[in-house]
């Protein structure tokens, strides 16, 4: 290509400066090239804008071309191409091959695996190096040692172990340290210095500043086989992590070989590190190979274990006791169910956990640990108006009559209105409410309209109804079991039951669809309508409102059949629900009633 005149002039001047030994010639080649290329690019852009295409161009004389190439190793055309942003042509002083650095492949690139050990490789080991103090590290050629001497002689410098394995200390000479343990370095140098400076009292401090960088091959069943750079003191986990970790679907976590010159130097079982914290250190050299073997045999653990994973074992069989040691059962585990998957027939075996040493597992077997504990006792709580203990432990199958004599009533206890709250009842009430809400939601969403006006009305009703459904789903039932009649003593208690002893009161509460919900003093002879009037009357028409009387023991009855109002009763006025669909109206009314009884909450549209 032809070179712009301005760029040619600048390059020629640079060559003259190089020949005459100007200060620019003393600069490093990289600094010189970067500065000249930037100036050439700027000048070329200005010339192009002012003179247009094809103007101010000339050919570089052969002398300039040859002299520049002989001094820099590249041609004027290549420099001009780079200055103009044009790729192509050989690059001067090419950089050495960039080995994979310490960053590993992000863990998010790989799907989660059940294989025990896959959690090891997420990039953390790759970001660390073995620069910490390792007393058993053997010093090697290329290692850097920080040496400080003070006292009779003062000296501080970082020395490199030369090709003969020596550290050359001024006025002392070479000291052989290659192959020496890191923990013995300080003493060896102290002896060499003391033999030279016998008359002076010298203090010696020597420490390994930086281990020799090495390049190690990582291959076999890893995600990214290749050549990786690190330190000789790095752990095998660091190199594996730089290679993306072991392939969880194919690679072995129990047989990882470190090889040198085709021979195995060390075999690692990474389960020893995960389960026992044991990981031997090995000193790497250039060209060492980390070879991950193929996965051998696998069993799977589930149930009451801390490690619900797939586990590898190198031998054809493994004892169930050893498998449980790796899976780590929870304290309450009692039995193990083993599913055999060999051959055409699938078999299941069941063993007490104490017989685990007598059972063997084969490749593909799965075991599930269970806690087959049968309840011997139950615990209940007693709260409310009483003076006794609040927690009781009873035999399994105990009845309410076993507890009543143990309750210490006080003057305000209402023993004939005991309330029982049960977790299983609460869950059942929640499920029943959810079924009703799902049916209501389905009815609203599938309702059809004959005209556009009707469709518009239904749309508004549907929004209100769906909002009601969302609010109703947030309500938690109380789980109360209504105890009434003469047979309450036969009620069988469950673990976690709570007995509440109501406190005697002289009030009657009125809430729901009244103007002024409140609590009023109980008066003999007054009925439900009287108390509603005391609360300001119905918010809707009395003919469309429904009043429920909730007794202290949790029993709910219609006010028309409740008879006399008792002290401690609660009057709940339910709103009248009206929609265009009879089916939806009936479903809404049922749900409102369920919520009022189960949660003592009045919910309306």
Reconstruct the topology from this structure.
Layout (H helix, E strand, L loop, with lengths): L2 E2 H16 L2 H4 L2 H23 L5 E2 L3 H11 L3 H8 L60 E8 L3 E6 L5 E4 L3 E4 L8 H12 L5 E9 L2 E8 L5 E6 L4 H7 L8 E10 L2 E6 L1 H7 L12 E6 L2 E7 L6 E4 L3 E3 H8 L7 E6 L6 E6 L7 E3 L3 E5 L6 E8 L6 E5 L4 H4 L15 E3 L1 H24 L5 H22 L6 E2 L16 E4 L5 E6 L5 E4 L6 H7 L11 E5 L5 E3 H4 L7 E5 L7 H18 L6
Parallel strand pairs: 8-12, 13-19, 20-24, 25-29
Antiparallel strand pairs: 1-2, 3-4, 3-7, 5-6, 8-9, 10-11, 10-12, 13-14, 15-18, 16-17, 16-19, 20-21, 22-23, 22-24, 25-26, 27-28, 27-29
Task: Explain what this protein looks like in three dimensions.
With about 600 residues, the protein is α+β, with helices and mostly antiparallel strands. The chain has six domains: about 5-85; about 105-125 and about 215-295, Outer membrane lipoprotein wza fold like (Roll); about 145-210, 2-Layer Sandwich (wza like fold), CATH 3.30.1950; about 295-370, Ubiquitin-like (UB roll); about 375-475, no CATH class; about 505-600, Outer membrane lipoprotein wza domain like (Outer membrane lipoprotein wza fold like), CATH 3.10.560. Helix content is about 30%, strand content about 25%. The chain has 15 helices and 29 strands. The strands form eight sheets. The chain has a five-stranded mixed sheet with strand order 9-8-12-10-11, covered by helices on one side. A five-stranded mixed sheet has the order 14-13-19-16-17, covered by helices on one side. Strands 21-20-24-22-23 form a five-stranded mixed sheet. Helix 1 packs antiparallel against helix 3 and helix 3 packs across helix 5. The longest helix is centred in the C-terminal third of the chain and has 24 residues, at about 425-445. The protein is elongated and about 115 Å long. Mean pLDDT is about 80; it is low at about 15-35, about 50-60 and about 85-110.
């Amino acid at each position: 290509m032809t070179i712009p005149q301005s760029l040619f002039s600048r390059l020629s001047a640079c060559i003259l400066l190089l020949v005459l030994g100007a200060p620019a010639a003393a600069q490093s080649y990289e600094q010189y090239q970067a500065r000249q290329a930037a100036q050439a690019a700027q000048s070329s852009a200005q010339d192009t804008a002012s003179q247009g295409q094809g103007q101010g161009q000339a050919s570089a004389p052969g002398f300039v071309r040859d002299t520049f190439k002989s001094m820099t190793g590249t041609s004027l055309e290549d420099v001009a191409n780079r200055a103009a942003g044009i790729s192509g042509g050989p690059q001067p002083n090419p950089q050495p091959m960039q080995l994979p650095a310490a960053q590993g492949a992000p863990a998010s690139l790989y799907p989660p695996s059940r294989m025990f050990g896959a959690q090891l490789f997420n990039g953390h080991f790759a970001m660390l190096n073995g620069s910490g103090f390792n007393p058993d590290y053997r010093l090697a050629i290329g290692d850097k040692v920080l040496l400080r001497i003070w006292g009779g002689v003062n000296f501080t410098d970082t020395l490199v172990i030369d090709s003969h394995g020596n550290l050359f200390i001024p006025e002392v000479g070479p000291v052989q340290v290659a192959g020496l343990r890191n923990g013995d370095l300080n003493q060896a140098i102290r002896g060499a210095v003391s033999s030279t400076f016998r008359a002076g009292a010298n203090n010696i401090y020597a420490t390994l500043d930086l281990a020799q960088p090495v390049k190690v091959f990582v291959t076999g069943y890893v995600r990214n086989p290749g050549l990786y750079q690190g330190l000789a003191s790095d752990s095998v986990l660091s190199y594996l992590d730089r290679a993306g970790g072991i392939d969880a679907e194919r690679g072995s976590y129990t047989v990882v070989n470190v090889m040198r010159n085709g021979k195995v130097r060390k075999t690692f079982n990474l389960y020893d590190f995960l389960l026992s914290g044991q990981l031997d250190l090995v000193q790497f050299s250039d060209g060492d190979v980390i070879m991950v073997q193929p996965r051998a045999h696998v069993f799977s653990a589930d149930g009451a274990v801390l490690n619900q994973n797939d586990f590898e074992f190198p031998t054809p069989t493994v004892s169930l006791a050893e498998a449980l040691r790796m899976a780590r059962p929870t304290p309450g585990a009692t039995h193990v169910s083993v599913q055999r998957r060999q051959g055409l027939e699938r078999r299941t075996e069941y063993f007490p956990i104490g017989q685990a040493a007598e059972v063997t597992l084969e490749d593909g077997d799965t075991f599930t640990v269970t806690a087959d504990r049968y309840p011997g006792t139950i615990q209940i709580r007693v709260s409310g108006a009483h003076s006794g203990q609040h927690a009781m432990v009873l035999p399994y199958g105990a009845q309410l009559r076993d507890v009543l004599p143990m309750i210490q009533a006080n003057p305000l206890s209402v023993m004939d209105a005991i309330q029982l709250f049960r977790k299983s009842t609460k869950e059942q009430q929640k499920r029943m409410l959810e079924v009703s809400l799902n049916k209501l939601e389905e009815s609203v969403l599938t309702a059809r309209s004959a005209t556009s006006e009707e469709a518009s009305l239904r749309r508004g009703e549907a929004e209100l109804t769906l909002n009601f459904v969302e609010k109703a789903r947030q309500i938690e039932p109380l789980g109360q079991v209504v105890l009434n009649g003469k047979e309450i003593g036969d009620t069988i208690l469950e673990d976690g039951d709570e007995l509440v002893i109501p406190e005697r009161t002289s009030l009657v509460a009125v809430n729901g669809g009244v103007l002024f919900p409140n609590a009023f003093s109980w008066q003999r002879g007054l009925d439900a309508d009287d108390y509603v009037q005391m609360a300001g009357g119905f918010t809707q028409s009395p003919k469309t409102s429904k009043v429920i009387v909730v007794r202290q023991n949790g029993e709910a009855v219609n006010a028309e059949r409740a008879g006399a109002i008792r002290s401690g009763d609660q009057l709940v006025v339910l709103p009248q629900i009206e929609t265009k669909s009879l089916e939806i109206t009936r479903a809404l009314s049922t749900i409102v009633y369920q919520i009022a009884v189960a949660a003592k909450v009045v919910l309306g549209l």
